[in-house]
Amino acid sequence: MKNEKITSREVDFAKWYTDVVFAAKLASYTGVKGCIAIEPNGYAIWEKMQEILDKKFKELGHVNVQMPLLIPENLLKKEGELVEGFAPEVAWVTKGGSKELEERYCIRPTSETMFSDYYATHVRSYKDLPMLYNQWCNVLRWEKETRPFLRSREFLWQEGHTIHETKEEAEKETRQMMEVYKWFHHEILAIPSITGLKTEKEKFAGAEYTLTNEALMYNGVSLQAGTSHYFGQKFSKAYDIKFANRENKLDYVYQTSWGTTTRMIGGLIMVHSDDKGLVLPPRIAPKQVVIIPIFKTEKVLQKCEEIKQELEENGITCYIDLTDKSAGFKFAEAEVNGIPIRIEVGERDLENKEITFTRRDTSLKMKVSLNENLAIYTKNLLKTIQNDMYQKALKRRDELTFEAKNLEEVKKIMNTKPGFIKADWCGDLGCEMKMKEIKGLKSRCILENAKLLTGKCVVCGKDAKYLVVWGLQY
Amino acid sequence: MKNEKITSREVDFAKWYTDVVFAAKLASYTGVKGCIAIEPNGYAIWEKMQEILDKKFKELGHVNVQMPLLIPENLLKKEGELVEGFAPEVAWVTKGGSKELEERYCIRPTSETMFSDYYATHVRSYKDLPMLYNQWCNVLRWEKETRPFLRSREFLWQEGHTIHETKEEAEKETRQMMEVYKWFHHEILAIPSITGLKTEKEKFAGAEYTLTNEALMYNGVSLQAGTSHYFGQKFSKAYDIKFANRENKLDYVYQTSWGTTTRMIGGLIMVHSDDKGLVLPPRIAPKQVVIIPIFKTEKVLQKCEEIKQELEENGITCYIDLTDKSAGFKFAEAEVNGIPIRIEVGERDLENKEITFTRRDTSLKMKVSLNENLAIYTKNLLKTIQNDMYQKALKRRDELTFEAKNLEEVKKIMNTKPGFIKADWCGDLGCEMKMKEIKGLKSRCILENAKLLTGKCVVCGKDAKYLVVWGLQY
C-alpha cells in the first residue's frame, strides 16, 4: 500500500526523497536557512551509527577528544590550500557580546587546523606517537543549495585526526580507516559502495591524496560517503608539528584525517527505501521489531509482553505499539518508519497457536507457530533481511554500472540512465573537465590495481593511466 | 607521594585545580581564547557521564534530537527576558562565505528559542503531548573570565526541553529531572549536593522558577551543577506553541528545560582530588582498575592477563600497563589519572600466591591471596571506595555548613572559612544585595519545606519567608 504523503520514486525522485524524510519524521526544516532539525527517528539512526563506528574506532586504538568550534583566522590561514578550499564557504564570527572582535573566528568547516595546533604543542618524542584522536561534533559550511542530510549548512560528523612517526604507518592508517568505512557500508548499512582514490581535482584541500567511499543511489547518482586523507608532512610543516625521532633528530610527523557524516542517513534512504517510506537494514535499525496487538485483550497483551521479553533477552531491539490508534494505522506507521519486522498478535491467531510476521523490505507475511523458538526465528529472519537488502542493492548497482570506451558511449549511457561509468583516463585535468560537459559527470574515484579497459583515454585517446569510475554526484 | 607538577591544595587552591587538570591530561588551553581542548582523559569522563545520564533520560521516556547551532536574531528576540539575559554574552555570525548576512545569527547560548520554534510547528493536539526531547551539544557564551571546565566560552552539555498538556505534568517533570541530577551527584559522582529553588534574582532568564543542584567544593565555594526550569506558558505564548486540548479548544503548552554540563568534571576534581592528582569515584571512572606487572616475565604477564579477563567478565573496566616505563613511573601515572584501584603483580608475590591492591583514595595497600575470588573482592572494594568517598565528601560538606542568625554571624563565618551558610531571608531583593556586600555572598538556593532558623530575616530583621543557603560561587 502506497503512502499518501509520499510521491512515487519513479515519478519524481527528488520529491520522493524529501517526502520520505518528512513522512518518516527523520528531520524537518527550521527557521535557519539550510539547517535542519534532526528529529527523534533520524537522530536514533545517527546514534546507532555512532555506537557501531565508535566501538570500531576504539578497538583500533583511537580515543575521543573535543576541540573548539571556533578557529582564529590567522591559525586557519597557515595551510594555504586548506584556507583556499574552505574560505569561500565558512561562517565568520565577528562580534562577541556587544564588542567587535579584534580577530574574527570562523566556525569549523573541518578541524585540521585545531588538531594541528594542538599536536604542535603536545608531541615531543617518537615515544608520544602515534596519537590517534577522533571527535564527534558539528561543522558548518555555507552551502548555497541544501537538501536534508545530503547537503546542509550545519551537519554532524566524526573527524579522526592522527599523527605518526613514519610515512608507512600514516599511509596504513589512511587505508585502514577507508576499510572501516567500506566495512560499515557493506556489512551494516547494506550498501555495496566502491572505494578508490580521488583525482587531484577532487581530493581534499591540503591532502597528498584522498581515498573515498562512493555509494550508488537508486536513481544512479553517486553519494560520497566517507573519505580518508593522507597529508604526509604538509600540515606538520605548516603548523610546525615536530618530534624527536629515534635518532634524536627533529622531524615532522606524518598525518591523516578521515570522516563520515549524517549524510549517510540520506544514503540509507536513497539506496533502500520505497514508496511506502523508509526501509532500514536490521543492523542499523534503532528498533528491529514492532509488536502490534490486534485488540488489546489481556491474553493478547500478555503474549506481546512475553515475546518482547524473549526477543530483548536475545539482543533484539523491539517495542510494543500500545497506542490507541487502529491496527491499520499502526501498520502504516511501522511501515513508513522502516521497522524491519512487524509481529501481529491477535486473539484468533493465538487460538491457532500462531502469530504473524511481516517483512518490511518485501512485505512478505508469514504465519509462525508459537512452538517455534521465536528468538532464533527472528534472529534468522533479521539476518535474511540484511542479506537480501544487500543483494538487492548490489544487483541494482551492477545494473547501473557501465563501461565506456569512447565519448560517444559515455553520452549514450548518460542519455538513457546515469550510473557508475567505468572508463580509462590519461590523468589530464583537461580531459576530466571535458567529461564534466556531459551532464556534469565527475570522476568518483580511480580504481586501484585495476586493469584498464582499452588502454586509451576515453576523452583524448592518448595513453591512459587510470581506470576511473565517473558519475553524477550529490 | 606528592606530584611535583601539582601545587599543594592548601597553599593555592586555584593553582592546584588547574595543575590537576593539566597533570591528569583532562584538558589544555588552545589558540582560541577562553576555549579548551578536552583531551582523551577528560573526554572519557564526559562519555561516561553521558552514558549514565542518557540511559536514565531514556528510561524516563525522553528521546534525543539535534537542533541548529545558529539562532536568527529575530527569533531569539521573541522572548524578551531570555534575550535580555543572554544577549550580552553571545557570539554573532555576521558573514557567511564572502557575503555579509542580511540577518545575523547568534551561536546558541541555550536552545529554548529553537525548541520553541520547532514545537510551534509540530504540535497540534493533546494527543501529541508530552514531547520529551533532549540534545547533547555544544553551546557558547562569551564569558570574560574563564577557567577550564568551570567556565569556558564553549562548553558541552545536555539540554532537555519538554512540552506538556498541563501545568501539573510540567511541574512534575521539572522536579523529576532535578531528582535525576541529585541522584547522579550523590550516587554516581559521590558528591553530596543540595537542591532547592533559585531566588527571583538568580533564576534562569524567562523561567517562572528554577530548581538548582548545588555542590560544595573542598575550599567551601559552591558550584551550580544542574538546573531545571519551569517555564509555565511564557515561552509557549512568546513562540505561539498552541494545541487543541481535550475540550477541543486551543491552549498554550506548559514547558520545561533542564541541563548539566562538562563543568561537572570540574566539580569532581574540586570535591575529591588531592595533591597527588585526580581521584575518581569508581562509578564514574572510565577505567576502574589498572594492572601493573612488576617485571614483565611470562608468568607475571600471564597472570595479569588472567586477572584482566576475570575482572572484565564481571563488568569491571581495567587495563594492563604494558609500556616500557618504570614501575614507579606507572604508579605515579595511575595516581595522577585517578584510577580507583591499582593491582601490582610481581614474581615474588606470585611465589607467595598473592597480589597487591592499592586504593587511590586512601593509598591503602592490601596483599590479597590468589585463592580469593578476585572479581568479588574487587567489586566489593570498588563499592567501599565509592561509599567512603561519598562519606568523606559529606563530612566535609557538613563541616563547612553553618547557620547564621544575624549579619555579624555571617561576617564572622566568612572571616574564617566560606561554606554553605544557612540563614533566614525575608524575600526582599535589597536584603539579597546586602548579603552580596559580604565578600560576594550569593543565595545558592531556597530550601523547600525547611523550618526557619529564627523566623527573622538575617539582614533586615523583619519576618522571614525562606530558609536560604548562601555561599560563594564559581
Describe this protein's structure.
The longest helix of chain A has 26 residues, at 374-399. In chain A, the strands form six sheets. A seven-stranded mixed sheet of chain A has the order 3-7-8-14-11-10-9, with helices on both faces. Chain A has a five-stranded mixed sheet with strand order 16-15-17-18-19, sandwiched between helices. A four-stranded mixed sheet of chain A has the order 20-21-23-22. Chain A has 474 residues and is of the alpha+beta class. The two termini of chain A are 29 Å apart. Chain A has 14 helices and 23 strands. Helices cover 35% and strands 28% of the residues of chain A. The first copy, chain A, has three domains: 13-272, BirA Bifunctional Protein, domain 2 (2-Layer Sandwich); 289-385, 3-Layer(aba) Sandwich (Rossmann fold), CATH 3.40.50; 401-471, Translation Initiation Factor IF3. The mean pLDDT of chain A is 96. Chains A and B meet through strand 2, helix 2, strand 3, strand 4 and strand 5 of A and strand 2, helix 2, strand 3, strand 4 and strand 5 of B.
What does this entry show, briefly?
2 copies of one chain form a homodimer. The first copy, chain A, has 474 residues and is an alpha+beta fold. Chain A has helices at residues 13-23, 40-59, 73-76, 80-86, 112-122, 167-188, 234-238, 263-272, 298-313, 327-336, 347-351, 374-399, 407-416, 429-436; strands spanning 27-29, 36-38, 63-64, 70-72, 91-96, 99-107, 131-140, 154-164, 194-197, 209-216, 222-232, 242-244, 250-252, 254-261, 289-294, 318-320, 341-346, 354-359, 365-369, 401-403, 420-425, 442-447, 466-471.
